[in-house]
């Protein structure tokens, strides 16, 4: 894994970026007194908390397997993303409360130009960093970083809408629009929280992996199946950066154990070259266990 794709240094950087953006958006809100810009700043508090959670989860997920966790700690990243989604829901409720207060007591914003400029600068930082997080999260196969990247980009689109709406408030003098924009922000981040939790729960429940990945694993097995009769009952799942692969390998009933073991070693190497970090379990069976619709050696398929 390249230096750029190492999750822990990226998580530290993400925490630093979140703190900088929070400071900028808080300054924009304090400069204007806008409820909409307040809602944007409040969401950044969740970004800081989420970055800290992701940092801890990545550290914990990287701990080696032990007696209590023989399969490792990889699912800690999914738990981090679930907690992040829950924090998003809490933020939406707080923003909705402030939006209601702003609707009841509308007031004109102050120093609108300064506030918009500072908020736009913070959003530009988030855009660059969010795109980078998505790339690194995909390369490192890290649910925590991927969830953080999606959350940061949601914040960018939210901020763009807030800025456009805030400009409309200033231009029209309809100050209650400020509260309406804040309410729309709350609805938007509720949806983002739902998506984060939905994806993470899917990982915790061992949902089927991307069919394209399973196809690549099947192709790797077929290509390196020489000496065996077939493979069947292929199952794949992911937990963080780890891919778990298991299947049954059918060989001639009289094949020496050492020969079957060599075939298994070859297949394991091929699968790891395809998926990266992997835990692979191969159950060897005699030829009478062959099944219809199995994976055949590539030359015989």
Automatic annotation (TrEMBL):
Any Gene Ontology biological process: intracellular zinc ion homeostasis
Keywords: Membrane, Transmembrane, Transmembrane helix, Transport
Main location group: membrane
Entry's family note: Belongs to the cation diffusion facilitator (CDF) transporter (TC 2.A.4) family.
Subcellular location: Membrane
Transmembrane segments: 40-61, 112-131, 152-174, 180-197
Organism: Endobacter medicaginis
KW Transmembrane helix (keyword) present: yes
GO molecular function, one term: cadmium ion transmembrane transporter activity
Cation efflux protein cytoplasmic domain: residues covered: 212-286
GO CC aspect terms: plasma membrane
Protein name: Cation diffusion facilitator family transporter
Keyword Signal attached: no
InterPro entries recorded: Cation_efflux, Cation_efflux_CTD, Cation_efflux_CTD_sf, Cation_efflux_TM, Cation_efflux_TMD_sf, CDF_Transporter
Membrane topology designation: Multi-pass membrane protein
Residue ranges of every copy of the Cation efflux protein transmembrane domain listed in the record: 12-205
């Amino acid at each position: 894994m390249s230096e750029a794709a190492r999750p822990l240094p990226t998580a530290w950087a993400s925490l630093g970026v979140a703190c900088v953006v929070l400071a900028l958006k808080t300054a924009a809100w304090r400069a204007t007194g806008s409820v909409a810009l307040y809602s944007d700043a409040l969401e950044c508090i969740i970004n800081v908390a989420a970055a800290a959670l992701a940092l801890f989860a990545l550290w914990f997920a990287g701990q080696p397997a032990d007696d209590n966790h023989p399969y490792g700690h990889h699912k800690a990243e999914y738990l981090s993303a679930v907690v992040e989604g829950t924090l998003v829901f809490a933020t939406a409720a707080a923003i909705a409360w402030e939006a209601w207060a702003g609707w009841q007591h509308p007031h004109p914003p102050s120093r609108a130009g300064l506030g918009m400029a500072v908020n736009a600068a913070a959003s530009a930082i988030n855009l660059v960093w969010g795109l980078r997080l998505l790339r690194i999260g995909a390369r490192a196969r890290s649910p925590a970083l991927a969830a953080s990247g999606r959350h940061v980009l949601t914040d960018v689109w939210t901020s763009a809408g807030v800025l456009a709406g805030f400009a409309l408030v200033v231009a029209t003098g309809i100050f209650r629009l400020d509260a309406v924009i804040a309410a729309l922000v709350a609805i938007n981040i509720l949806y983002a929280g739902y998506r984060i939790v939905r994806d993470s729960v899917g990982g915790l429940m061992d949902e089927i992996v991307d069919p394209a990945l399973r196809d690549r694993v099947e192709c790797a097995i077929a290509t390196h199946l020489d000496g065996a009769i077939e493979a069947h009952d292929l199952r794949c799942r992911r937990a963080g950066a780890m891919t778990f692969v298991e299947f049954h390998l059918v060989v001639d009933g009289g094949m020496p154990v050492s020969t079957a073991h060599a075939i298994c070693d070859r297949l394991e190497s091929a699968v790891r070259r395809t998926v990266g970090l992997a835990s692979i379990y191969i159950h060897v069976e005699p030829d009478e266990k062959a099944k219809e619709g199995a994976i055949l050696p590539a030359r015989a398929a």
